[in-house]
Every structure is written in C-alpha cells, then in structure tokens.
Amino acid sequence: MKQKKVVAKKKENKKIVLAYSGGLDTSIILKWLQENYNAEIIAYTADIGQKINKLKIIKNAKKLGVKKIIINDLKDTFVKDYVYPMIRGHALYEGSYLLGTSIARPLIAKDQIKIAKKFNAYAVSHGSTGKGNDQVRFELGYYYFDPRIKIIAPWRIWNLKSRTDLIKYAKKHNIPIPKDKKGAPPFSVDDNLFHTSTEGKVLENPKNPAPEFIFQRTVSPEKSPNKPTFITIGFKNSDPVSVNGKKLSPSKLLEKLNSFAGKNGIGRIDLVENRFIGIKSRGVYETPGGTLLINAHRAIESVTLDKETMHRKDEIVSKYAELIYNGYWYSKARFKLQKIIDANRKKVNGSIKLKLYKGNIILQSRQTKNKSYSMEKVSFEENRFFNKSRVERFIKFHKKKL
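RE: above sequence
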C-alpha cells in the first residue's frame, strides 16, 4: 500500500520519543516513524504493573534499529501518587468505572516528556487510536509539561486503516506478528497494576453477555472458594498502609489486595460508557484490589470524618471522576477538587476488616482512635451526652424551609 509521506524538516540529531509496548502496533508505529521522519526513535516503556516482557521489548526494538530503549519502573509512583489520591476522592465515572485506564495515562505522559527533555527530543509519539479517549489523555499530559512539544499521532495521519493493513505492513518489514494478532483479534486489552480493561469485537454488541474466557485476573463468583476470606486494611492519613497488620509498599499492597479479591470473584463490571469524544463504548473491567480499597476507604471515613466534610466530598465525586476520565488530571479544576478531598485526610486513620465471599464484600468491623463516632451519643440509653430537648427547636427551624 502506498503510504502518505510525512515531510519533516531536516535537522541534525533530531529525536522522537515513542511510547513503546514492544507489541505489534507500536512496533509498526516505530518503523513508520523511521520511514517518515528524519529522526532517531527512542523507545520508551513505563512499567506500571502491566504484563510486561522486558527482554521482548528490548529485542523487538533493537531488531528495528533502536539504540536507546528505556524501561522505567513506575509502579510505586503510580499507586501512591495517582491511584491513592483517586481512591481518596471515591472516583467512579458514571457511577461504576474505577478509571483504571484513565489514571495511568497522566503518569506515562509525564515521564515520557521527562525523557524527551533529557535527550532533547523535539517530538513524542503514542499508539492511541483516533476513536479512543487515550489520545486526549496522553496529549493533554504532554502539553501540560511541555506546551511546545510536537506530538505525532500516527493513527490520525497514516494510511493504515485496518488490521489487514497493519498485518501487511508488518510482513513487509519483517515485524513479528503474534499468532493472536493474525486477522481480527477477539478483543482489545489494556492492563496495569490497578485494572484490566477488555473491549471490542466479541463485546461490541451490548446484548451479548461477556464470555468467561475474557476475564484475566478474577475468577467467576461461582468458582470462587466456598469459604470466606477475611482481610484487614490499615489506613494512615487516608491512604492504605497495611494488609492484615503487615506494612507494605503501595505497589505490593495493591498486588496483595488484587490477589485476595481476584480469588474471590470480586472487581468485575460490565458497562456502556460515554467516551469524551462522543462515542458510546461497551467495556468489561476488572479492578479487584481497587474495589476493596474504595469500599474500605468509605468505611474508614464514615467513622473519622464529620458530616459536612463527607457530604461535600460526595457532591464533587461525579465532576472529579469526569475530569480524570476526560484527561484533566493536571488541570486547575482537578487540583482544586483534590484540595477539597484531602482537606481533612490526617483524621482518617484506623483499620477496616472485610469478609470476601463469592463476589461480595461484607464489612466486618471499623476501628479507629478518632472521636468522630461517639458511642455515648448514639446509645439508646439515656445519658448526658445528647440533649434531646433541642430537637424540637431544630425541627421548628427547618419547618420554615418547607
């Protein structure tokens, strides 16, 4: 197929940093960039807990003539600085999506620009398609850290319009084609330490149930253990710090929760979402550890935060989640909402015990030294801690608002 030639001004030592997974699509993009731009391509991979084969990434990039191959381990940063703040905000897009793909892109964009500046690259490139949300998320992130950076989005400008075109191009340039990529794949997968998303093909018709074979990190509730699993999550300053009394790094803690929840059939959702660019899309998401965290976090806040703080947070959840989904993690609006979310986070300390059973999360206990919850005030026994005589005046005051 005749390719549309992209003309770039000649300049010595020009460099482009490509977000590179080592797979078929980004290998094709790498070769296409080499053919159409007079620049050295730097292959950059962010390790945020996805299924990753570093040797394969290096091998495939070197085979295509790449000299600089960078793989950065960002797992702890991802969980601590991106997932945890989002959990503190109880972010659920359209009431159910825990934003596993959305929250990963801002970090990748930030680190990719860091690499671009280090090697004095004039441009960055990504493999997001022209119909998806990720192109927006990546590019808003790029522009936040470098408003002048040139962005190359091949899917929006090249002549490769189909999977068949990609396969032909790969064969022409001796790019390895995985067996499951020959022809149309059954579905598309994105994963990181927080979640796995599955979209496309077999899932495109919303009337069809999701086949069991697509699930990768959770067993079906029917096949989960017949005995419950009990876990205790410890919180300090509103962030999880321990599981069953053992302190863990952010990434190790999430790995542990993923394991517990996944084995018990917890963390699956099937939804039709409204993409930022205006398309409805059906996807199946697995967020096992994240589902435990958001439930446990709401529980620990219920006994540590006052009513006004909790309700104010609830009022902004929808907007906060939408900003993240749309790629505005680095926006002034998100920063402002995060300040509201974190205003009293130092009060949120204690532990939550959960029972996991057949896809269910059953709250067992809440423990904290915080005094927001008063057993004396809530007791049905008469005591001096609550003056019931004031209730009548309280009711008459609110009667005026009828």
